[in-house]
Amino acid sequence: MAKAKLLLVEDDVTLSKMYEKKFKTEGYDVEVAYDGLDGLDKAVKGKPDLVVLDIMLPKMDGLSVFKKMRSTPDTFKTPVLLLTNFDQEDTVFECFKLGAVDYLLKSSVTPKQVVEKVGNLLKGIEGPITE
Predict the structure, then answer these.
(1) What domain range includes position 78?
(2) Lowest CB count within 10 Å: 11, 28, 47, 60, which one?
């Protein structure tokens, strides 16, 4: 079975490296983008199985990236998991209207929980993550 391809769009380099290592340890093929423009480009060209997207990003914010993905044929149906500390309800609601598969608040989850959530989403399992 081929490895699932993940795109992690996160501007915090330390966090990105940590998540990248954790995902690779779990057997995922991971690509990282550190800003919204690069994230959108890699989403379109790389055709990931899932995008883990931060909202607060340089060059193009996560909501704009998500809107562009939804208006592009190659990424129209790509699942997007929001992993952010940005918790403004209207923006989060907008992302769910666009079809976000879930939303995790960085400060409330462990890396292990994020990897578990990604694994469940790729298997089509919805619901809360375990502690």
Answers:
(1) 5-122
(2) 47
